[in-house]
Amino acid sequence: MVIVIKMKNIFKFAVAALLAAAAISCNPQTYKQINYLQDIQNDTIMSMKVNSGIVIQPQDQLMIIVSSRTPALAAEFNLSAVNYMAGSEVLGGGSGYQRTVGYVVDNNGDINFPVLGTLHAAGKTRWELQEMIRDEIVDNGYIKDPVISVEFMNFKISVLGEVTAPGTYSIAGDKITIFQALALARDLTIYGKRDAVEVIREKGGKRQVYVLDLRDSDIFSSPGYYLQQNDVVYVTPNAVRAGQSTINENYFKSAGFWMALGNIGVTVTNLIITLVRFGRQK
Description:
It contains seven helices and 13 strands. The chain is of the alpha+beta class. 16% of the residues are buried.
């Protein structure tokens, strides 16, 4: 009888604990730590920072294609494609796979362009570079109707920390926001701090860190809202995750852990035996 009463008390305690946990999870304060853009009301119209596109930097790799109504005239301004075969590479035809060769911006910010020679690309957007190449070709009388296409070949960002799928991602085009980057990484985990997302950017030999609060609409005006090539996004872990990190996972594989677990099992067994004997005596 005593054991039954004790079991009922334990059950009541467990139910109370579960209800308390549910109450905490439903607490509005909990949502304030998780929800994005909490200060935006329905039908809110906000001004956005104009994104003029990322600028070209040293070590960038660019794909530049010149087209014309007269393909023979445009051909001399385009690099030949390269075929790769079993560790070697050859120009023109052949088996294997083909890859378009790009222009690598040197440390001075220049590219060596066919016919036109050295062109300074760093500090320009791809549209500005397109316009500059077009003007050079037309002004020098090479082609009357050139169409220039400039694309980034190595626009990548890295997303690390408390996200579902951390990694390095290649970006098509030249525009991506912090929210789009987090979507690529399949959003933050429940352990990620929404108010401490860092964007680490290297530019001109200097490193700049922007700390973003995903819960606040001021994020739209931050220089870190639109990402640039080679940016690193780091989601800081919250206190719960930090506490978990103090436990060494290897400990669970150690002999000491299993010895301690065995001792606990023996203690619990002895306690149950004692309670049973005590109940019989009553």
